[in-house]
Amino acid sequence: MPLARSLSVTSLSGLEEWDEEFDLEDAVLFEIAWEVANKVGGIYTVLQTKARLTAEEWGENYFLVGPYVESNVRTQVELIEPTNPALKRTIDKMNSSGCKFAAQSEQPSHIVAHFHEWLAGLGLVLCRHRQLSIATIFTTHATLLGRYLCAGNVDFYNKLAEFNVDKEAGDRQIYHRYCLERAAAHCAHVFTTVSQITAIEAEFLLKRKPDIVTPNGLNVKKFSAVHEFQNLHAQSKNRIQEFVRGHFYGHLDFNLDKCLFLFIAGRYEFSNKGADIFLEALARLNYLLRVNHSDVTVIAFFIMPARTNNFNVETLKGQAVRKQLWDTAQTVKERFGKKLYESLLVGQLPDVSKIMDKEDFTLMKRAIFATQRQCQPPVCTHNMLEDSNDPILTSVRRIGLFNSSADRVKIIFHPEFLSSTSPLLPMDYEEFVRGCHLGVFPSYYEPWGYTPAECTVMGIPSISTNLSGFGCFMEEHIADPSAYGIYILDRRYRGVDESCNQLTSFLFQFCKQSRRQRIIQRNRTERLSDLLDWKYLGRYYISARHMALAKAFPDTYTYELQEPTSTSGFRYPRPASVPPSPSLSRHSSPHHSEAEDNDEEERYDEDLEAEKDRVNIRQPYTLPFKNKSSAVHGANGNSDGNGEKD
Q1: Alpha-carbon distance 348 to 626, whole Å?
Q2: DSSP string, 472-507
Q3: Of 42, 75, 316, 645, whose CB has the highest number of CB atoms within 10 Å?
Q4: Cβ-contact 304, 341 below 8 angstroms
Q5: Rounded Cα distance, 150 and 49, in Å
Q6: pLDDT of res. 10
Q7: CA-based R_g, the chain, Å
Q8: What sign does the dihedral 243-246-251-257 (CA atoms) show?
Q9: DSSP-derived pairing of the beta strands 382-384 and 308-311
Q10: Of 3, 49, 42, nearest in space to 147 by CA
Q11: For residue 191, what are the β-bridge partners?
């Protein structure tokens, strides 16, 4: 089933601003979700990062509504008195006599209520049932039934048209929740999803085709490090290397300078998130690296929260041993430096055989003795509550990757969210991602995929799939995604074994890149961050809200949806040098060796290539809107659409 083109065509910085004249002076926006100031999953990130852009558009007429969780209110919410008199009266009524919707205030205005996911959908259904004068929008970030079906290892995408949705929901004991989600989708004035792949899913499972696709964005400024992201990568990589030194103490028989850090992160959905295929690909990669006598070592991190009762003692001991070795080295260095200094003061070259005494050698021997280890470095950093049944650990036992010296691929399973206060790996998630070389997200079910998007804006290459919203979005906008460090794995038209072989090929080719090639690839990846900025992707939420206003209040607001014209040049072109192996880079590249220069013949101008990318990006398609007094045109003052056909 081919993917249909959507309106999700964005632009890059430097293009003209979107000239929006839609009259919102007499309108109020409420955005309702279970994850408002309540972090559960990706919707929290959507709302948090989009809030500033939406507030700039709506000002004090923008309100987020979510559950009152005392602990979250203390840390994430600043309590203030509402300035809108009608809203204040409404809140007072709610506090005194129970919960009433804001539309019941004494001075109604044009209200837009945007509901996210089925948990908030009940409010939408009641609004329509009570015939309240409200423009409603429902956004599904992932269908409830879709999650359950994929978790059951069914051939989901090839059988979408065959499912008896009522029976499947009933069999999984989610029928009432499914009905609520479906009712919300049908009752809403405007129904949206976050990607084309989810739009197809919603059309078959919820029985309504979305009106518009609203891709998820990021506040790119939060991650931006102007001309410094390569340096930040090096700094964060050094911190990960320190952890690795402790974790593999006694078995550190590989060169950390030729060590690549790969990671997968997210909810612990073993099959949906692709951890199963990633582990199998790592086993095959290990074989390829060994038979090709590669000097590259791959360390794969699995950052997926699971049930644990404490840190693994052996893991904690490793970090303690590393710290002890560091302290010993510093002590010996200070003694050595003092004796060297005194020898030079009297004008003599030091006698190296005498500059270190027996006490120094004793300290070093004790430190070396402490690194002796009889067991292999642990795979899991914590004690699992259900070790024997854990999917990742079970697969590790099957493929036999136990961090032995002979293996070129090592595995570290960290079943806990990363935190800068952790005694084990004291890094927050952003810092950890910056220090890695490649993010691997071979998901089977991923309506959008924030993890590869976060990698992209930080300049870290990633592997995604054509079953994820992010992967489809990048395939639509980039002529050759892999040249920009976005590897798209085919999990839609290939079997599991074929997809696993393709993933193994991606990993092996990445391992064969030189350090110089990886630097250039990171430069290219970071340039894609503009595609994911809310500054551009937020426009599709704006279009959805305007469409809802026009449907709910046709006497005040109208819109005209025109068929977009098909023109070329909207995608990132293939870079001049593929694979990325230039010999002369400009700024943003750390110092490289002369040996690497001698191996490369291409010349590369980063600024020139970046400018070509910007020239080849077209203006986003915008919907022409108008209110009763004035028409709203596109960014260039005309009313012709310019995007891809739906």
Answers
A1: 88
A2: HHHHHHBSSGGGGTEEEE--SSS-HHHHHHHHHHHH
A3: 42
A4: no
A5: 28
A6: 38
A7: 28
A8: positive
A9: antiparallel
A10: 42
A11: 138
pLDDT at 644: 38
Residue with tokens 């961050």: 529
Query: Is it the case that residue 159 has pLDDT exceeding 50?
Result: yes
Question: In this structure, what are the phi and psi dihedrals at residue 338, rounded to the nearest 5 degrees?
Answer: -65, -45
Closest of 216, 218, 282 to residue 430, by C-alpha: 218
Q: Coil, strand, or helix at residue 565?
A: strand
Strand-by-strand arrangement of the 134-140 sheet: 62-65, 27-32, 110-116, 134-140, 190-193, 212-213
DSSP string, 387-408: GGG-HHHHHHHHHT----TT-S
Residue 596 CA to its chain's centroid (Å): 32
Nearest to 454 by CA among 632, 175, 218, 174: 218
- Report d(CA 510, CA 527) in Å as an integer: 19
Contact 561, 612 (CB under 8 A): no
Name the band, by pLDDT with cuts 50, 70 and 90, for residue 86.
confident
CA distance 300 to 519: 20
Contacts 24+ apart (CB under 8 A), 597-605: 599/514, 600/516, 602/577, 604/520, 604/576, 604/577
Report the alpha-carbon distance of residue 553 to residue 555 in Å, rounded: 6
pLDDT tens across 258-304, in order? 999 999 999 899 999 999 999 999 999 999 999 999 999 999 999 99
Burial 154-173 (b: 16+ CB within 10 A, else e): eebbeebeebebeebbeebe
- Inter-axis angle of helices 515-527 and 450-457, to 10 degrees? 110
3-class DSSP state of 635: coil
Q: How confident is the model at residue 632 (pLDDT cuts 50, 70, 90)?
A: very low
Q: Work out the angle at residue 359's Cα, subtended by the Cα atoms of residues 355 and 364, and round it to the nearest 5 degrees.
A: 95
CB of 622 closer than 8 Å to CB of 565: no
Are the C-beta atoms of residues 579 and 520 closer than 8 Å to each other?
Answer: no
**Cβ–Cβ < 8 Å for 489, 464:** yes
Rounded to an integer, the average pLDDT of 381-392 is: 95
The predicted structure's pLDDT at residue 19: 44
Q: Distances from the Cα of 79 to the Cαs of 75, 82, 125, 169, in angstroms?
A: 11, 10, 29, 41
Residue 4 has pLDDT above 60, yes or no: no
Smallest Cα–Cα separation from 540: which of 530, 548, 529, 552?
548
Residue 379, pLDDT score: 97
- Three-state secondary structure call for residue 65: strand
Instruction: Spell 355-391 as b/e; 16+ CB within 10 A means b.
Output: beeeebeebbeebeebeeeeebbbbbbbebeeeeebb
CA-to-CA dists, residue 388 to 106, 383, 397, 402, angstroms: 61, 11, 10, 15
